[in-house]
Amino acid sequence: MTSKPTLNDPFHNRNALPEDPDITTFDDWEFDHGFNFGFDFDDLKYEHPRPSPALPCPPTPSLPIPQSQPRDEDSQPYHVYTKGQKWFLVIVIGAAGLFSGLSSNIYFPAMDEISDSLNVSLGAVSLTITSYMIAQGITPLIWGSFSDTLGRRPIYMASFSVYIIANIALSFTPNYAVLIVFRALQAAGSASTVSIGNGVIQDISPPAERGSFIAFYQAIRNFRIAIGPVLGGVLAEFLGFRSIFAFLLILSCLVLATIILFLPETLRSIAGNGSLQLTGVYRPFVQRLLAGKSGPKWLQYCNSDEDAGDMLPRKKVTAQTFIEPLKLLGEKDILFNLIFGGVVYAVWSMVTSSTTRLLQESFGLNEILLGLAFLPNGLGTIVGSAIVGKLMTRDFTRLEAAYRLSPHHNAPLPTNFKIGKSIPLDFPLERARLSHLPWISILFILSTSIYGFSLAVAPNPTIQPSPGWIVIPLILQFLIAATSNAVFALNQTIVADLCPGRGASVTAVNNLVRCGLGALGAAVIDGLITLVGVAPCFLGLGMMTVGVAPFAVLNWYWGMKWRGERARRKEREAAMRQRDVETGGLPLKG
Q1: How far apart are CA 233 and CA 124, in angstroms?
Q2: What is the membrane topology here (predicted)?
Q3: Which range has the worst mean pLDDT, 40-54, 235-249, 450-464, 468-482?
Q4: Of 12, 125, 442, 456, which has fewest CB within 10 angstroms of its CB?
């Protein structure tokens, strides 16, 4: 029997995963705390790269697992902003993030009016939704990559400029061609705000806070689903559909002015942990106005260049900048999260985009009543995001405390230990983020499957439902929206945790998958309803969600293992790059 390694042993410290059979493993902690992770954690044993005998062995980078005692860099806070300052920034970026969905949802009640005004079919108008969603899925890859390289603030200003130009053109829409082209440009300008906002949240918040911030950010953005159709219906009814774009133009100019005035740069390669002095375009205009004066405390973001904290290396924009986000699709845990979340998003998009047609056919609503009928869907998105945010924060805090007390550490962790920039490989992240996914998914599937039957009853003359029957499909829409957006919040939070420092890029990839599937769904939903009927259509969509549920199950059981494999692979690549530098750039094989 070998003796237990000590902290001084470079191959058996808290930077390495346990190899010695005598070491108390995480399996013991799982048993003591009632968890079962579905595999033996000893499978994640650390392996040092084996260098060529002819070359010296370079120092091997350590795995991102916290030390038993805080390291020097951990003595700095993750971010210097106060909780109030962080919440203020989340509100600002939430207002900016409104436009991606608002531009889509404010449009739905006006589709009939657009069809009549431009002398095109309702199906042709529906294609503008598809073109919008395609641009919404693709363009964040470009904006997000720029944002993770050049900074959040300048890309916000550039993307809003594109959005404003599109709205100017749409305010004078003379024909269908202008509508479909500039709707796509409108999406190109607004879609990036979601991914940039998620990048800002990752910049300023450690994992323990991130779940609540992301959920609240999503709830603010989802407010547009509640209010957008109501505004769209009123504007289209009294001022015509072009007034919708004039309204968006005025509102976006106000939000852009707010960003220029108040939003500081947060990208950690530029701003560090918020204590670096910002200059040029990265500095909010209000700080220039208050230079040398005593302003409100909540506006005093960056005051010195001391204690800059963990400042990431500054990157250059290359072709690889735009290719790197797509490589995330090659990671099993990330891909499986995106596929399941993308299908849920597509089903919800099909419910939303078909609402105008189905409620008009079943209940004969005008534009104003149609706008009001979208309220349950919008309120559901807010409620679902808010509830799941609180649940994620509670779960993460509970598991973080259990991890701190677990006996598998070589030395006790301090009582104030918090998971910071890098999540330990042996921390049960999947449990912290996805423990509520099963019941949320079941409720989503049931609500979607029943939804079509509630609409099939309304126009059926043999059944003759009461006049208040419309309440049934609207309640189901509320449940579909609440559960689907809860899934989105869970999905976005864990994917952000898996890709530290790449918040905007990973959100852009998420958008690519979700909006790609959503655009496909929006394009086929009308034809599908016509072909098979409304009840079989939505029952089939519920069963389709059941069909992709195994992706979530696989991630639940093997996600932790895949995280470990990715970390070891990155370590080997880093060691090989280091050795390449030390040997004068000699090519390495294998």
Answers
A1: 20
A2: Multi-pass membrane protein
A3: 40-54
A4: 442
Whether residue 372 contacts residue 226, with contact meaning beta carbons closer than 8 Å, is answered with no
105 burial type by CB count under 10 A (0-12 exposed, 13-18 middle, 19+ buried): buried
Least confident of 57-66, 201-210, 349-358: 57-66
Q: What is the DSSP string of 407-437?
A: TTSSSPPPTT----SS--TTS-HHHHHHTTH
Confidence of residue 50 (pLDDT cuts 50, 70, 90): very low
CB 199 within 8 A of CB 147: yes
User: For 481, left (φ over 0), alpha (ψ -120 to 50), or beta?
Assistant: alpha
Cα-to-chain-centroid distance, residue 281: 26
For residue 25, give the 3-state DSSP assignment: coil
Asked if 176 and 118 count as a contact pair (C-beta separation under 8 A), the reply is: yes
Residue (of 395, 405, 385) closest to 430 by Cα position: 395
239, amino acid identity: L
- Which residue shows structure tokens 């390449």? 580
Based on C-alpha coordinates, what's the Rg of the chain? 26
> Hey, is 280 helix, strand or coil?
helix
- For CA atoms 274, 197, 192, 510, the dihedral sign is positive
How would residue 326 be classed by pLDDT, with cut points 50, 70 and 90? confident
- Amino acid in the structure at residue 378: G
Task: Give the predicted TM-score (pTM) of the model.
Answer: 0.68
Buried-exposed string 204-227: b where 16+ CB fall within 10 A, e elsewhere: bbebbbbbbbbbbbbbbbbbbbbb
Q: Select the more confidently predicted residue: 287 or 479.
A: 479
**DSSP alpha helix (H) spans, 499-533:** 503-532
Q: SS3 string of 346-396?
A: HHHHHHHHCHHHHHHHHHCCCHHHHHHHCHHHHHHHHHHHHHHHHHHHHHH
Measured from the Cβ of residue 164, the count of other Cβ atoms closer than 10 Å reads: 17
> Please, what's the b/e burial string for 234-270 (b: 16 or more CB within 10 A of its CB; e: otherwise)?
bbbbeeebbbbbbbbbebbeebbeebbebbbbbbbbb
**All residues at 6 or more sequence positions from 264 whose CB lies less than 8 Å from its CB, including other chains:** 89, 153, 271, 274, 278, 282, 283, 284, 287, 301, 302
User: Cα torsion for 76, 77, 80, 84, to the nearest 10°?
Assistant: -160
How many residues are present in the chain? 590
Q: How confident is the model at residue 23 (pLDDT cuts 50, 70, 90)?
A: very low
Long-range own/partner contacts, residues 454-462 (CB < 8 A, 24 or more apart): 455/358, 455/362, 455/534, 455/535, 456/533, 456/534, 456/535, 458/362, 458/363, 459/361, 459/362
Burial 520-556 (b: 16+ CB within 10 A, else e): bbbbebbebbeeeebbebbbebbeebeebbebbebbb
CA distance 232 to 106: 4
The residues, ordered by sequence, that sit 6+ positions from 76 with a Cβ below 8 Å of its Cβ are 273, 307, 309, 310
pLDDT in tens, 175-205: 999 999 999 999 999 988 888 998 899 899 8
